[in-house]
Amino acid sequence: MIYFIFYFLFCLWRLDWAVLFLIAALPSYLIRFNIFGIPSTVLEGMILISFAIWFFKFTEFKNFLRGKYGWKSYLENRKQRIKYPFGLEIVLVLIISFIAVAVAHFSTNALGIWKAYFFEPLLVYILILNIFGGAKNVETHRNASLRKIILALAVSAFVISAFAIFQKFTGAFISNPLWAAEATRRVTSFFPYPNAVGLYLGPLVLLFAGYLANLILNFKFLTLPTGRQVLNKFQISNFKFQNIFKVIFLATVIMLSVVSIYFAKSEGAMAGVVVGLIVFGLLAGKRARWATIGLILILTIGVSSYAPARNYFIEKATLNDLSGQIRKQQWIETKKMLYAGYWFWGTGLDNYEAAVKPFHQEGIFLKNNDPDWLQKIRESAAYRQMMWQPTEIYHYPHNILLNFWTELGLVGMLLFVWVVFRYLELGIRSHKLVELNSQFINIGLFCAMIAVIVHGLVDVPYFKNDLAVMFWVLVALIALINLKNKIVIDKNI
User: What is the DSSP annotation of 365-433?
Assistant: First the structure.
């Protein structure tokens, strides 16, 4: 309560800084408590306080409450505002996700997930668009808003990565004995499991790479954050120092993040980062495109020529390793469940485990490259015991499409496919419209979503407090670029 009082005062003083602090503190959802028996988190408290301050202090609704004008004039003023990018999608997400709560019979867990994964992340989206968007803000400060939000995320990534690397060399604060053991160590940072490190840092690596490329390649185009002209040598040197510091800081964060993902052994995140970097190279310009294509050819020839590397790549790509075979079994069970009557409405929020249980198989026999594998399984009890792998029921199917399909139903899954498609479409459209000093930020945002999709093929990149908010922060950033393009085009017209 003391913390929330100080955060409330922080919001009253500088709401924009408070929201940036909130973005930097996304992992604060791990600090949990109850208020009058209702589960809550520090992240949730900050979101609700920030939104309440904005709504009652900085919107025209305060004038309506004070009786300065009625509903008619209030609605007229609303019509003059800039329309939200993804406005219709936001409304549909709220409606469909609440229907998923109804499908889950309005259970307490379903309501909690609805507010944490849908309602509150959308509040953050609205806050970013209103505090850091708008014609006056975007036109005056150019890309300062984008940079501030990216730097807030970079601070978060730096702290998470630094702690993860500390765990790697000490083994401290890793709760699982298997992950803590030196021979099988997997870092978790502040999170409860290793893959959470990759899920959080993977997309951010691409976003930071975009901002870093902007700082390095377009240094001479940068102006003071306030939009004022450079007046003297002191201002010039001070601003150059700030940007040199940003270059060093972002390069350090990217390096630490990649190392942390590797130490967490999050293969899905590593694949997402690699694919994202390839797409980044293809979009970054003619020279970068040819260099990327050349590098792909060299790596392809090298992997094809070296048998161990070739076999490793094939095993991972075909999901024939241990985690891959477990994933495929999950998807088989989920498919059976959907065909059994859940194909349209899904299971409802937080109801997947109960719904898939009748279709769950206690374990699987692990396949290998032995051509007589099946015959040995049938004939040898000792071989069956050696190849038997027990499987558990996970909270989600670990596939981005199946995750949304089971939780939100077929329509909800298609809606999120549409949101991602619109995001990527805006990224491609903005690539030709944005100014030179934000072009690579746009590419970084595009590739961040590519990393989310690739990792999401085998994991859960949305259904988690911090990841849900991060998803809508990325959408808000691409929306800010889109708003800026509209404002510039309208002004020129």
Answer: EPP-S-TTHHHHHHH-HHHHHHHEEE----SS-SSHHHHHHHHHHHHHHHHHHHHHHHHHHHHHHHHTT
Query: Helix, strand or coil for residue 40?
Result: strand
Cβ–Cβ under 8 Å, residues 9 and 54: no
| C-beta separation of 49 from 4 below 8 A | yes
Phi/psi for 388 (5° steps) reads -80, 130
Give 363's DSSP letter. Answer: E
Verdict on whether the full-model pTM lies above 0.70: yes
321 alpha carbon, distance to own chain's centre: 26
pLDDT digits (tens, 9 = 90+) for 330-340: 999 999 999 99
For residue 41, which phi and psi values (nearest 5 degrees)? -135, 165
Tens-place pLDDT, residues 357-396: 999 999 888 888 778 888 888 888 888 888 888 989 999 9
Rounded to a whole number of angstroms, the CA Rg of the chain reads 24
Of residues 90 and 141, the one with the higher pLDDT is: 90
Q: How far apart are CA 185 and CA 165, in angstroms?
A: 11
